[in-house]
Write the structure tokens for this entry.
Amino acid sequence: MGKLKTNRAAAKRFKATASGKLMRRHAFKSHILTKKSKKRKRLLRQNASVSGSNLRQVKRMLPYAG
């Protein structure tokens, strides 16, 4: 059987940690930042882990990540 292809769009958006968890960035941080509070923008800067309900789909797109 041949090699599996990595979804390149997903590879740019998700990174695997050393323990095998997948990390993602938060949405709603690209524009219209004036009406968002300082606290909200600060929390959106941090990375988040991929939720369990989406984990199977993301791992399928990234066969060699973690």
Observations:
- DSSP finds three helices and three strands in the chain.
